[in-house]
Amino acid sequence: MSNKSGQTKLDAEVIAEAALALLDEVGLDGLTMRKVAAALNVQAPALYWHIANKRELLDAMARAVFVSAVDGVEAPRRDEDWRDWLIALASRLRRAMLGYRDGAKVVAGTYVSDEAMFRTVELTLRTLEDAGFSKARAARVFPILLHYTVGFVIEEQARSDGEYGEHNPYLPERLASLVDAQRYPLTAQLVTDVFSGDTDAEFTEGLHVILAGLDAAGWNETPVD
What we know:
The protein is mainly alpha-helical.
């Protein structure tokens, strides 16, 4: 939104979107309030009326990423398994973070105070209660899945970081040449699966393992409230 002079009207949301747009160019380490101000064609002090510091900027950026991730999320359909619903929810967040360079680092450790967050937590808790989880255990599941998702994408993005360039050690052809097959035959055989496999499949398989673990531990069977 612009004012009569044609200049963008500043608020936390506009500033956060400008900062996210800069990530592909400068990365999180190179992101400064001054660069964000320049992108908005204003002086840096103008930002501080809306964003007090970089910590608040990261919170606003994380809010934008999370809100986009959960846009349109609804409760599970009547015939939808609770596990499938949770996997789809985590996958939405992963895709949203992958949309930006260092997107997962932006989200990690931030405080997202927004109706979209509270609504998503509420839907998750209700879904888990309907699946037989106690309130106490349902409350544990959301952060478990959130932390797994953010951590996975941090690692995923770090391995594909453009700073490596052509010397990226995680390229399959480089991985295969780095292991002494005589000393470490299994590692040499499986190194590309261990370190450079199908990340989409790896992510989903990890979620299945976590959810199977909850089942095996009886979290949705034994009430503890």
